[in-house]
Amino acid sequence: MDQDVSNAIALIDSPVMRSRVSLLYDVCREECGLARAMLNTLGAEEARQPLPEAEGEAEARDAYGSLTKRAKMSVYVDPIDDATFPLLTPLGFNDMIAKTKAVFACGLSHIEHLYTIYKDKFWSFIVEADETMRASRISQFWPAGDKTKWGEAFRRAATDFSFWAAEVDRRVFQVKQEETSGTMSRNDSDSPNQGGKSRASGSGKRAEHQFCFAYQSGSPGHAGETCPNGRKHLCMKCKRSHPLPRGNRECTAQASSSQEQSADGKSRSGGKKRVLSTALLPPASHVKFAEIRNGIERIVQPFLDDLSDVGKSPLPESMVDAVRDEIIKVCDGLPSAKDLLNCHSPLRGGLWKLLIDSAADWDTDIPDWLSGEGAPIGVLQSISPKNVFPVDDSDSPDPDTICLWELPGSVGPGTRSPMCDDEFLNYKSAEDRPEETMRLLRAEEAQGFCDIFQSREELVEALQSERFVVSRLALAPKPGGKFRLICDGTASGLNDVVRCSEKVRLPRISDAIEDALDLAGCDGSFDNLEYLSVDFRSAFKLVAVNKAEWCCQVCRFGKFYIKFNCLMFGTKSSPLVFCRVSACACRLAQLLYSSSMLRINCYIDDPIILVRADSPRVRKLRMLTVLSFWAAMGIVFSHEKCQRGSSVKWTGALFSLGRDALTISIPEDKIEAMGELGSSLLSQPARVDLKPLRKFCGKVCWASNIVPYLNAYLAPLWRRVGIASGCGRGSADLGSSRDSLKWLCYFFARAKLRCAAPGSNHCLSRSFRLSCRKPPRVSIVVDASTSGIGGVLFWGRGESATPVAYFGDALSKEDLQRFGGTLGSSSFQSCWELMAIVVALKLWQRRLLDCSAVAVFTDSLVSLRVAMKQKSRSESLNWLASRLALMCALDLRLLELRYKHIAGVDNMLADSLSRLQEGYAVPPGLASAVRVRCPPRGDEFWAL
């Protein structure tokens, strides 16, 4: 009989299933009173002991011989799961079944909850997470030295909310984000890869594209960089080659997927751009934070009438303290959670930990930064990436090649550093204003942000080290005649050894515009929207620095030594660390309200909140709820900078809410400043100073958020900046890029004149209506032949569009001379196609509305690409692109052009119009349209 069972088990393909059937066979034998047949179901000692006599055991001995005789079936058991254990009695077995069901019920209920949310589409994520929990996660919950309480370990592992949020909720969120942004890799039928197997198919991969599984486990012969089977010797998790442990489960390194390393920042799990997208998960956190919101609103409502100016005056401390108690109550925390844990920071780390755990937020380092020894600055302690911003290790220095104590600003025992000389001087801005510099230092000392020592000996005693790095002080002017302290970590060499793990991505004006359009779309107008702009006071000084990094936080002024306890303004990593903290604060605040009630964007320490509600009182309540929530966490506001209403200034631009549109404009003083800076650069000889050129490019880049056509002139200047910086020069040779600088100066001069004109809307102002998200109601279709150009103006959308005007004109002598073309030659076909677009826009621009969407169709892919990118390798196309860009930049009616391709066979109307001089007739479909005569295209036509 044993032989028959062995033969039957041998037919089973899966080793795991063979082991299960074998174990079941032994259980059945025991139920029948027979001896067990598998060696691996007995312990070593038990196998040598005679089994107790049971009913029928004598017959079993007679039938199968000695009790120690066993059929060796261990070959069928999975060697990974080849455990030994004594079998249970029937009563004990039934009791264990009941206990096991009770233990597994807690995990089953959570899986059922996830399935009701994500359904079949993401079922594979849930299964993978469950397997990971059983295979590796459960071991973390076993009591030390006690492997018997597996039921309790499983219960704790199955109910670990942060694990399910990381393995399921965040993965679902990232997939949804990629689907929304169009970055998901797809195997569409129209993709270039159609001739063979799909690249997504495992069987279609060649060996060099496959990971070597033997390398993951470190098998003999697979430890080097070269695989004997031709596969990739890379860790499957982090996609790098490194020593053991390796693999998806064992590797402890941060994965370096293409999503994390994307440069656009759109797929980040968290950040400061459109905080809405960072607060979509996990679903259970919304329930918890809705409870927090309801509690805060109950606390705030009695104070609503007294707080007339939201953000302009400090919040009552009694109200803020009650909010802290409410957070502790909802999050099941201890009363001590609201205590200050770091004397150098006002942030309450205990509350941050409660909120981050309740939200299952991925930046789990922040509670340690705020509650423990402080935050790292990336010198002696690393800043671990948390997928908040794109991973950036391109410029990270190798710690083995740079010695911290050989930097220009380092001070140590027995060294003669210029930082210790009596003649040591800071920057002129600080030395020329000693009273102001000392006043700022004393003010920071009073708030615990720094400590001032009378001598080097006192500093050494505080640092417990004779080695430290000294940075020079400078004063940077601020609006209102104030100054900001700068500690230059570049001159001291400190920034050369700072390792930043991520690259900060800040929101743009376009992000705030998209949020406004989303909320206005809920009601069909902008009437129910209101802005609140606040400022986090002290910014970088809110985050205390780890004591181990204090030796890199030293400055000198006169005979005094200053040790900064918080992030210094001037260290390369300070923006990253602070933006991690402020981004987390915005994510948590966004969780309080749904996406249809409130949106947040935060530019470093300057958040802008857009609130939607029918009642002004409700909008005020929601604003105060967010402010009191942040105040409870320890964030301090600059009340004098707070703005509230339908018109606020944020990141230098003016946001104005009207009934039908959101208007974004650049103030006149900034237009004038950009024009003056450009003119000063233009007045310099062939080479211009690199620093002001970079500053000018940065300002124009910011202005291009409103007028994107400025990028056509900005790209050549950025290229010159990059060349000069790469060569280490302090000046740049503009060369042919000087023409781009001239065009920009001309643009700002025209913009300044329009600002001065009474009742005129200047060209650095742009309105966004809800209709801009709909298909354009105005369309222009153009075409060109080797002898002429033509175009049609349509009103309406889709099939209901009606032609209202058209033009058709032959190529003139001026055209051929200007571009060097030949009549009847196809060499300049792309040039004529792009010229047709320019002519059509000049003819019909007066019939368009400001900032109205206009679709421009052409069957030329080359001219379409040049019009969209505003640049080309062809001199003639570049000349036309520059005219087109400047014409559109100066005219609000041409700001919303949408270029689209039309097949040549569908472009018969414009094609016929471009061949009228060849004898073609005007198409009958244009009988009701008006023909427009083209003016001569001489110098006057092309003048701007």
UniProtKB/TrEMBL annotation:
Residues 457-655 form the Reverse transcriptase domain. It comes from the Eukaryota. CDD domains: RNase_HI_RT_DIRS1. It holds the Pfam family RVT_1. Residues 253-262 have a biased composition (Low complexity). It comes from Perkinsus olseni. Residues 176-203, 244-276 are annotated as: Disordered. InterPro entries: DNA/RNA_pol_sf, Hepadnavirus_pol/RT, Rev_trsase/Diguanyl_cyclase, RT_dom. This is Reverse transcriptase domain-containing protein. Residues 180-194 have a biased composition (Polar residues).
